[in-house]
Amino acid sequence: MSFLRKVLAIVQKDLAVELRTREMLSSMFVFALLVIVIFNFAFELRVENVRQVAPGVLWVTFTFAGMLGLNRSFVLEKDKGCLEGLLLCPVDRTAIYFGKMLGNVIFMTLVEAIILPIFSVLFNISLFHPILLLIVVLGTLGFAGVGTLFSAMAVHTRAREVMLPVLLFPVVVPAMIAAVKASGGILDGQAFSEIAHWVRLLTVFDVVFLAISFMTFDYVVEE
Amino acid sequence: MISKNYRLSDFLTWASAIAMIVALYLVFVYAPTERTMGDMQRIFYFHVSTAWVGFFAFFVTLVASIAYLWKGTRRWDIVALSSVEVGVTFMTMAIISGSIWAKVAWNVWWTWDPRLTTSTILWLIYVSYLMLRNAIDEEGRRARFAAVHGIVGFVSVPITFMAIRWWRTIHPVILESEGFSLATPMLITLLFCIATFTLLYFTLLVYRVRLEQLTDEVEQLKHKLGR
Prior knowledge:
A: mainly alpha; 8 helices; 0% strand; B: mainly alpha; 6 helices; 2% strand
């Protein structure tokens, strides 16, 4: 089997497990919706212009929902004893990393695909801008890329569900700043050249964190 | 081995004590009073020095973490841990002294200026590093995870730094590409303070490393006695 086929096999496994229960996707989606509603209440009384807070709310929603997914990503593997099975598979450890990472990206993207139109309706702004979608993809990739690594670590700690956000948020904040800034620029109607440096920063973040995660993943899953 | 370590820590202790006294003299007597801010500006020497030690300590952790993953010896793990503890302490001092300075210069204790935000994020990353270590019981796994975190955490520093430069900042820039933007006596004081605090960092690091080694030794002795 080629490397790609091995990665896809792991993605397929995660998708099959999820499609049987739809537990995680539904809770991620409902949670994301809740975050938007709560933010609406929190800001409604004070903010004149919704556009000012929209990019921040959007990214907080995505990261919070993504955090739920990441938390589950390795918990299931560990509790059912599947992690040992996965490690015993005749595949490279990096294939496991990319497989799990792609699975998380797919789950987050599915939730985002539903949330974006709802967000547009609730905040009365159009989010369907090709560059904004690119920023969403880049942000999701970076978040899931380093998140998968931390998720594999957090599952072995004592207070695992609590540990993941504490570990992950400080590390991804710079990327989220870039994503929020870039999204804000798009919503303000700026040209791509004006926000290009933020998109570039986000890309640098993605490349660096994917590279480091895939190099160190071996040490994290090692028994 | 132990006696050699003792001699090194003795030397470092005395050297940093003497250097610190000289640094205090330079800061409070030798350095001229700044025109607009007055004596309050003198906190700046400690602020820059502690911030530098914070960054430097986290860099040492990065190096020690890479070395640990490569060699797998406990010694590197101890260095990484000790450096984070010392670094977080100094980073805390830098943030507090910066806050005092900000009250005088900008008339607020805190502002979400990029430089301040970065320092806070960095501080949080390494506090979570310590929390991660606390949350894992198994020794080898703790060291491995901590090393991975030590690497991932530091890599975000240059990226965050880029973000700062693009985000407008009101934080003064001391080190410019054309050279320092300071009067000569102030510059001498600042450089001496930085050197002193670096010396202090190594002193604390040596003590902290030895403490951890002694803890290990106690554990082994307990084990031998069969508890």
